[in-house]
Amino acid sequence: MNLYRYASPQSFYPLAGQMLPWFAAAAVLLAVAGLVIGFLVAPADFQQGEVYRIIFIHVPAAWMAMFVYLVMAAYAVLTLALRAKLSAMMTLALAPTGALMAAIALWTGALWGKPTWGTYWAWDARMTSTLILLFLYLGYLALVGAIEDTQRADRAGAVLVLVGVINVPIIYFSVRWWNTLHQGASVSPTGGSSMAAIMLQGMLVMTLAAWCYCIACALHRVRSIILEREGQGRWVRRLVAAPLGAPSLQEAGNRP
Amino acid sequence: MNHWLMIAIAYLLTFATVALEIALLLRRRRAALRQARASIEEEDAAAGAVETASAGAGAGAAS
User: Fold this and answer.
1) What integer pLDDT is reported at residue A3 of this predicted model?
2) Whole-prediction pTM
C-alpha cells in the first residue's frame, strides 16, 4: 500500500469520508462508556467529594489541547519542508478543535478550582501557559484567515505553529518546574498513576473518546477545506455532480 | 459551593460547545458543496455561451 498516494487531497478526500463515521461512532460509544464509569461506577473522592468528576472532561480536554497542537506542528513541518497542500489543510482543520479543547480545559478547570482551591482563576504557570495555548490556536486561525493568498497564509501559519510549539512542554512540565497552585501530574508515562483504578479507567476511556472526536472533526473539516480550495478541479466536478450520499461520492476521488 | 452545580455547568457547557462545533462543521460542509456546485454551473454557463457564440459566428460566415 503506497501511503504517499494519500498525500494528495484528491486521494485523501474519499479516505477521510470512509474513516469519518467509524471515528464518530467510536467517539459516541466511548463517551457514553466513560460517562457511565465516571458517574455511576466510580465512587466519590475521599478528599474532594463529588466535584472531582469534572476530571473526566477536564483532563482529556487538556491532553487533547496539547496533543492536537503537536500534531499541527508536525503538519506545519511538512507544509514548510515539502510544501504539501494536504498538510496545510490538516493544520487548518485541526486548529478549531484544538482551540475548543483548550477552552474546555480552561473553563472546566475554573469550575473545579472554585470548590477545591477557593478561586476560579490564578495566574499560575499551568493555567497561564494553557491560556497562551488557546491564544496560539486563535492567533493561528486569525493569521491564516487574514491572508488572502492561501499558500502565503499556510506558510505564515506554519511558522506561527512552530514558534508556539515551545509552549507545549512548558505546559506539561510547569507543575514540576514551578511551585504552582495546580496539582502535579496524577498520571505520568514513567511514574504510573496515583489515582484509584476505576477513576483512571473512566478518565482513559474519556480520553479515547476525545481522541476519536478530534479525529472525526478534523476529517470532516478537512473535507470541507479540500472542497473550498480544490473546487475548480475536474475530480471535484465529478464529485459534486453525483447526488449526495451516492456511492460515487465516496469513490469519485479515486478515479484519475 | 454546590459540587453538583459545578459539575452540571461544566458538562452542559462542554456538550453545548461540542454540539455547536458539530453544527458549524455541517454548515461549512453544506456551504462548500454549494460553492463548488455554483462555480461548476458558472463554468458550464460560460462554456455554453462560448459555444453558442462560435456556432452563431460559424453560421453567419457560412451564409
Assistant:
1) 64
2) 0.87
